[in-house]
Amino acid sequence: MCQRDTPANPITSVRSGETSNRHICERIVMDIQSLTAFFKWRTTINIAVFALLTIVILVFPDYIYSLHDKMFNLPREAFNIAVYSFLGLFELIILAFSFVPYVALRVVRSR
What we know:
111 residues, mainly alpha, elongated
């Protein structure tokens, strides 16, 4: 842990104009329970966004293709591959950066 140089009475030191290094080492400290809650909500939100994107792509594929065709002039096969690749990559990112840390923290917390 970091040692802070704190005066005995911070109010009098500010009034007297005394400067110290007490702000150098201030930082937010998270415990395992807070990190677990953070990753739980991060995973939940990411999965909800992924599900919403998947539903929109499945329900309105022609509309989404027409929007992207106007911008990028892609053939339909290339668009299908790009969408499939995007969804796969997004799923892997959710697993690697949200779900796996959440599970690891749950395992550590249970011990």
